[in-house]
Amino acid sequence: MKEHIVLIGADGAQLPAGSTEYVAIHNTKTGLMVAAPFGEQRFTHAEALAAVKGLTLAGSAEWRAPTVEELFPVADRTRFDPAVDPEEYPFIESDWYWTSTIDPSSPSDYAFDVCFYNGAANLDDQGDQGRVLAVRSVVASAGQ
Fold first, then answer.
1. Which of 79, 92, 130, 132 yields a CA-CA distance of 20 to 30 A from 48?
2. What is the structure's pLDDT at 140?
3. What angle do CA 100, 128, 134 make, to 5 degrees?
């Protein structure tokens, strides 16, 4: 496991590297904690945002859908199918995931997603069924 990746348990505590009991991953380089609580379940854009907003996980209820600016850098465009580093995010599948970023030219129709098949960011119809990841921003405490 890479040293900037911290595994987080159900109670929000840091777990030792190699643990399989984690529910989220905290990337200390980006300050973003990422979880995949819904597995392969698919949602419309509105359903995805509501599902994440109602989530309590890893000792927190402050989860949300990522912005396209947060999720796009998670994709590793030197990889393909999946376009993600499996050491950093082993639960991200070769599929597309909603972001909270809507299309400003058509805000009631389209929103951005990030596709981890090829690492692209795309616009999709908000009625399409996609996956969603939950994120929260984490500020490192002194000494961390």
1. 79
2. 60
3. 35
All residue ranges of the chain with pLDDT < 70 are 1, 140-144
Give, in degrees to the nearest 5, the angle at Cα 40 between 34 and 45: 75
User: Computed over its alpha carbons, how large is the radius of gyration of the chain?
Assistant: 15
Burial 79-90 (b: 16+ CB within 10 A, else e): eeebbbbeebbe
Instruction: Tell me the DSSP string of the chain.
Output: --TTEEEE-TTS-EE-TT-S--SEEEETTTTEEEE-TTTT--B-HHHHHHHHHT--BTTBS--BPPPHHHHGGGS-TT--SS-S-TTT-TT--SSEEEEEEEPTTSTTTEEEEEETTTTEEEEEETTS-BB--EEEE-PPPTT-
HSE (side-chain half, CA atoms, 13 Å) at 108: 0
